[in-house]
Write a structure and sequence with these properties.
The chain is α/β, with parallel strands linked by helices and about 270 residues long. It has 9 helices and 16 strands. The structure holds the ligand NC(=O)CCC(=O)C(=O)O. Belongs to the carbon-nitrogen hydrolase superfamily. NIT1/NIT2 family.
Length: about 270
Amino acid sequence: MSTPLRLALVQMNIEAGNPEANFAKMLSRLEEAAALAPKPDLIVLPEMWNTGYALTEIKSLADPDGARTKEVISEFCRKHEVNVLAGSIAQSRGGTVTNTVHVFDRTGAEISEYSKIHLFQLMNEHLHLESGDRPGSFDLEGLPAAVMICYDIRFPELARKLALEGAKILFVPAEWPHPRLHHWRTLLQARAIENQMYVVSCNTVGESGGTNFFGHSMVIDPWGEVLAEAGEEEAILSAEVDLGLVDEVRGRIPVFADRRPAIYDN
Ligand SMILES: NC(=O)CCC(=O)C(=O)O
């Protein structure tokens, strides 16, 4: 067994179009999470926590270059000596807005930035946001990790690419609503089982513009077993994972060794 990683997932209600309220809530939830005993190694936030899906006003609401997010969360990480995967934010740069995750280590240094590759047309993302074009692998204190955002989980090719790049744990900040709870649970478990890795998803809750976000943030192990799952209210979900289990599962069922990419990769 390797060193366990303690996780805390902030499942929160986001006020669409109100970054001030969302920053205040996010910071107080981060404080709560950091005060848990035992203290988490990594705190995870949900998708678009600064603005929600206020897409028609997104250009004026988005965080320019992510500067405010970086300053506030980096300072928090330094103060509490904790890593934070800062969900995603609406971030503006040169007239475009992206749906972007920043990851910070315990010293407050930014260690990764990933912008959502697949924009969700059903919620009009493609009309207001620019998509990213670089997969989100990163190193978390020596642990091979990766991030995808919400709708991205419908694309198994991306998760497989991240696994092939070495990821043993996949983080999924999300803002995923009813009525697709069945899709959410099934897709997350499928990504964990087929790639034999941990999947850690942090969703939002609450109603916004007639859409109901259902929570059910989850921590799933490389066998596809659900280690922890939140309900439909605000919560801080905690769990402990051991990435040594990934090697064990990959050894028991050698999916990666048995692949035949010459036949089906294109
Ligand atoms: N924010 C999103 O990407 C939502 C994705 C979603 O709801 C889906 O069904 O896919």
